[in-house]
Write a structure and sequence with these properties.
Structural class: alpha+beta
Shape: elongated
Distance between the termini: 109 Å
Oligomer: single chain
Number of helices: 25
Strand order of the largest sheet: 8-7-6-11-10-9
Strand content: 15-25%
Mean pLDDT: 82
Radius of gyration: 47 Å
Low-confidence stretches: 9-20, 665-671, 714-725, 840-848
Number of strands: 28
Helix content: 40-55%
Length: about 850
């Protein structure tokens, strides 16, 4: 059995043993059979164990057992309970604390359901000592299990935080009231504001400030709630000598019960009762040895004022006295200044003209925070009236971030007696802010200073516009540099890929190897083709790929790609189209447009991991001169890819077209898809726009210039020649050995006789030496003479000799637009088609 006696619970030092003995005695001696818990010796082990633990604790703990919440607590909690102890012990919590019954009902309901509750600085109003009082506590509630593990009770560990919270609230109250009083200019405004604040804070019936003079008390204004006002003059004689002598000491006079306070004379008691005063605190204010006024807080009924309330009233009284003295001094100074200004005519006609016409904001202000004069420019710049500017402290017009530095600069000027310059933001009447540059200088009186403010808002706006332009220039230069880099890299990759793709294509065409080897070759060729696509994306971003721009039926391109896109997007994406009925053709490269559309569709699919709806829309549109952005005015075909995916935030939209920028994670995307599409749109004379919101999907639109001609709807077919066909002689010129050898092998495989040259100069030497090729296939960028220069030289030597320029995409400069070109890397079918196009009559037998 667990021993609840003080001896059984003794532990720790002697002080702890003495404190714990009281509640342990009460638990051991109480007749628990009259409670829902039943006799002590019949308590379950779980209840006895929990009770023993809480009785040993030095911190306040209370346990509520059973559905009724029977209260068991320790000595520390009994101190918190105050006058409610010891009756609380063994009572139901609802009856023990009826004023917070709803709060405790919720605690019992939640914790007996197995959950916990935690409160920090919880405010409750408790009647612990015969009167309601606000109490703040930290409370932690947890369920207490019985032998079966089910919650049978609730244990609460509490810490009263009333003193700390009350001190914080009191400090905040005094600070807030001081800030308000500092802005007021007259004693009447000050006493009124202080009375209202103090009356509402203390819940008083009446609060007022009274001036004392020749035995009379004058009340010009008062705060009253539920009682009548006592504004007027009242004699102090009826207060009685005892009370008047108490006032002379200077400490607050506190009366808790007017009818029973012996310090009051019969006349004073009767007079106070007539005025509905049951209790009061009077704080007397002195000026030197002279009694000049008092602050009075009154309750209509008797009230047990706390020491904290008494000291609060005294602090408020001192602040009111200081604020009144400050207001009277300022008033006297203003009157003196007005007199001096009138006598010496400080404002001459010229100074008045400058004051009224200056675009700068002129002001006279003091170091206490108020302005005494402002020029008309203040109203013109800020919108505030003169009365508004002079009735509020100048700090209240400042931006919060600028207030501290500004006031510090003014204080430094006051100490050093030297002029100062600074900038800050001043509020306008319509809710905006103006950047103002100030020049301030002290006046000889040591009280005031002169301020001249110049509006810098337009200057700041121009600086912001310049910064935006500079950032745009930096971004443009970065994109141009990246474009140059990617163009160069793409050229090198094309030279590497040309022999790879050519060789693999030849192996596929000849069916070389076993089934497994052919699968490996096909896989390698597919990877090489993907690398080719990546290079094309790089070139599209760099805007350096040659485009075959024709009139394209955009609707037909979209419909022709629906099957491919459905298989690419998968069953979780619902694919729709929204195409205008009579859609005019657009100027575009059909192949590049298909690649761009597929790229955008794949991006949209990746933005819808759980599936969604993808819509391809195409409509004619017009761009007017007032449209934002850089798109020229004109008629366009607007091709949009609209998804219902995750969307993008503004920062992601801003960076979306940057090359290699991707939100898909490492290994899940090249970051070139949107860059390629953006480059294609720009190269076609159009634009790419992105409209996206997180969680609401994305719309990416290609603006393609409308074509004035009809779309070419033909679809030519190409067949490679039969192996062994005797064709003409081809002179192959390329400084890259692997590229030249791969091209030669393709041509031989197609049936051509091939002669190779490593340079343009070598090719001219062969032709001058008697070689008569039927066609020349030459690289463009080579050491010494370029391919385009070779083509022009051959025109002189052999007029009519067909020349095919093989380009790595990046090198367009110096190539005559009339010269046919084939882009690297290429397969045998593409090479055969290019040769056929060179001379349909002379080489037509190469196409079957």
């Amino acid at each position: 059995m667990l021993d609840f006696s003080p001896q059984g619970l003794r532990h720790g030092n002697g002080r702890a043993r003495v404190v714990e003995r009281s509640c342990a005695d009460l638990v051991a001696a109480k007749d628990w059979s009259q409670t829902p818990l039943g006799p002590l010796d019949g308590w379950p082990h779980s209840l006895r164990s929990a009770t023993a633990l809480l009785l040993r604790s030095p911190v306040p703990i209370v346990m509520l057992w059973g559905e009724e919440g029977v209260m068991l607590y320790n000595d520390a909690y009994s101190v918190f309970a105050g006058g409610r102890h010891p009756d609380l012990l063994g009572s139901n919590v609802r009856e023990g604390w009826p004023e917070v019954a709803d709060f405790n009902d919720n605690v019992m309901r939640v914790c007996l359901a197995g959950r916990t509750l935690h409160y920090r600085d919880q405010e409750l109003t408790l009647n612990r000592n015969g009167r309601p009082e606000k109490v703040w506590m930290d409370l932690d509630y947890s369920p207490v299990p019985d032998e079966s593990g089910r919650p049978a009770g609730v244990i609460c560990i509490l810490a009263e935080t009333t003193e700390r919270v009350a001190a914080e609230r009191r400090s905040q109250f005094l600070l807030s009231m001081s800030d308000e009083l500092r802005t007021l200019r007259t004693p009447a405004e000050i006493t009124r504001a202080a009375s209202v604040r103090l009356g509402e804070w203390l819940g008083a019936s009446r609060v007022f400030y009274a001036e004392i003079d020749h035995g009379m008390m004058t009340v010009t204004d008062d705060y009253h709630h539920g009682v009548a006002t006592i504004v007027g003059r009242h004699s102090l004689v009826s207060f009685g000598d005892d009370l008047l002598n108490a006032y002379q000491i200077g400490t607050p006079v506190v009366v808790r019960d007017v009818p029973d306070d012996d310090r009051l004379s019969d006349g004073a008691r009767a007079g106070l009762t007539d005025r509905q005063v049951g209790a009061f605190i009077d704080v007397v204010l002195f000026e030197g040895e002279q009694w000049v006024g008092l602050v009075a807080v009154q309750s209509a009924t008797p009230r047990a004022w706390t020491p904290a309330e008494e000291s609060l009233v005294q602090e408020v009284g001192e602040r009111v006295k200081s604020a009144i003295e400050r207001a009277r001094a300022e008033l006297a100074l203003r009157e003196l200044n007005e007199t001096l200004e009138a006598q010496v005519a400080l404002r001459s006609a010229e100074s008045n003209r400058l004051w009224n016409l200056s675009q700068d904001m002129l002001a006279r202000a003091d170091y206490q925070g108020m302005m005494s004069a402002v020029s008309p420019a203040w109203t013109q710049v800020l919108g505030w009236s003169e009365d508004e500017l002079l009735s509020r402290g100048y700090a209240t017009f400042m931006h919060d971030e600028d207030t501290g530095p500004t006031l510090a600069a003014i204080a430094h000027m006051a100490r050093t007696r030297s002029a100062a310059r600074f900038q800050n933001r001043i509020a306008t009447r319509d809710g905006g802010w103006r950047h103002i540059e100030w020049t301030v200088a002290p006046e000889p009186d040591g009280v005031n200073f002169i301020a001249v403010g110049r509006d810098l808002s337009e200057t700041k706006a121009r600086e912001a516009e310049l910064e935006i332009a500079q950032e745009a220039l930096r971004q443009s230069q970065k994109m141009e540099a990246m474009g140059s880099l990617t163009g160069g890299v793409a050229h090198d990759f094309n030279n590497l890929l040309t022999p790879i793709i050519g060789s693999l294509d030849m192996l596929v065409r000849h069916g070389v190897g076993s089934d497994r080897e052919r699968r490996l070759i096909n896989g390698a060729l597919q990877s090489a083709e993907r690398a080719k696509t990546l290079v094309q994306r790089l070139l599209a971003f760099a805007r350096r790929q040659p485009l075959k721009v024709t009139a394209v039926d955009v609707g037909r391109v979209v419909e022709g790609m629906m099957g491919l896109m459905r298989s690419t997007l998968g069953p979780t994406v619902e694919l729709r189209t929204d195409l205008a009925a009579e859609l005019p053709p657009a100027m575009a490269d059909a192949n590049q447009l298909e690649m761009a559309l597929l790229n955008l569709a794949v991006n949209a699919r990746d933005a819808m991991p759980d599936g969604g709806q993808l819509t391809i829309a195409a409509h004619p549109d017009k761009v007017r001169a007032d449209r934002p952005g850089g798109l020229p005015t004109g008629r366009y075909v607007r091709l949009s890819v609209i998804d219902t995916g995750t969307g993008m935030d503004a920062e992601t939209v801003k960076r979306a077209i940057e090359p290699f920028f991707s939100t898909k994670g490492v290994g899940k995307g090249t970051g070139l898809g949107l860059s390629m599409v953006h480059g294609l749109a720009a190269q076609l004379g159009g634009e790419l726009t992105i409209d996206s919101t997180p969680g609401q999907g994305t719309t990416i639109t290609l603006w393609l210039p409308m074509s004035a001609s009809e779309a070419d709807l033909s679809a030519p077919t190409l067949h490679l020649p039969t192996q062994g066909t005797a064709l003409g002689t081809v002179l192959v010129v390329d400084d890259e050995d692997l590229v030249r050898m791969s091209t030669a092998d393709m041509l031989v495989d197609l049936g051509y006789k091939v002669v190779e040259a490593r340079s343009a100069e070598g090719a001219l030497t062969l032709v001058n030496g008697g070689l008569e090729p039927d066609v020349v296939v030459t690289d463009h960028l080579m050491p010494g003479m370029s391919g385009a220069q070779l083509a022009h030289a051959l025109t002189t030597l052999r007029p009519g000799l067909p020349v095919l320029i093989v380009s790595g995409y990046a090198e367009e400069e110096g190539i005559d637009a009339s010269l046919p070109r084939l882009t690297k890397p290429f397969r045998a079918a593409e090479l055969a088609a290019s040769l056929m196009a060179l001379s349909p009559t002379g080489l037509s037998h190469a196409v079957h």
